[in-house]
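Hi there, hope your week has been kind to you so far. Thanks so much in advance, here it is.
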Amino acid sequence: MPKNKYSLIRYRVINRCLRERRYVTLQELREACEKALDISPLSDRTIEGDISAMRHDSGLGYFAPIKRDRINRVYYYEDPDYSIDTIPLNQDEIESLVFAAKLLEQFKEIEIFKTFTDSVQKLVDVLNIYRISGMDTVRNFIEFETVESNKGTERLPELINALKSRTVLKLRYKSFTSKKISSHIIHPYHLKEYRNRWFLIGYNEEFKAIRTYGLERIISIDTEESKKFIDIGFDTKKYYENVIGISVIDEEPQNIQIAFSEMQAQYVISQPLHHSQKRLNNIKDKIVFEYFLIPNYEFYAQVLSWGAEVEVLSPKSMRDSIKQYFDSILFKYNH
């Protein structure tokens, strides 16, 4: 019988309690599960049902030797060495783990993940022992998008430590649009990955505003121990709510209507461009979608990449900008 994730977490908690404390009351098991799930209250009947499932459910396959001392009203493992963590994996579980390990393999060249490279490889090697004779594992017939090693990822450990310790940083930085290296005092708030590039988001003392820095463009990082960390209550979700990508510009979001070809529409239906995406109506052989967002660089780049498959209907300002862009391309190819 399939179990939901909360049930599976409770089984792990119950197993841990019985392993660590040996004799445990029903109340102690219930309170431990409530704490782990941050859910209160759970009923005694729920915990009793979990214990019964761990003992008898053939779908789970635990067949846990849980006994109850009716006099002292405690539960315990009849075999003190038993643990559900030692249950052999079935083939579906093995293939799922290999799938996950393959996913992790693509990050092995990024500095912060190198610590886990040996562990991932060991996991893959051990799991391959269990492969059914004559059958290929998912490692051989599934390929993930390759993540190339990007300059700047070696700074991730240092920046993560700065985020955790709330340390003020001095960055020497060279943007793609400047020939000079500039210095910035930054109060780091967040690290974000977008299209295989990493970015640091923080409060810039000079501009008194949030700024974004590509890690591959950081020349050096120094700590400013004498400076007090400034916390402005940065909310990541709110900050990026009205944009796609990484750049946030100081503009108000607006309603944008785009007509897609029937074929291109299927792509944005299956993978929406933005959470505000809303399908409106059909115009001849085109499907119209509306977005409520700030048209930043990434948004324009995405729309332009669709070429003749889309047409911006409104607002007029954006429609004119797109037209201007294509006019400039046409001019280059005609002269």
Summary: The chain has four domains: 5-86, 91-141, 153-239, 254-334.
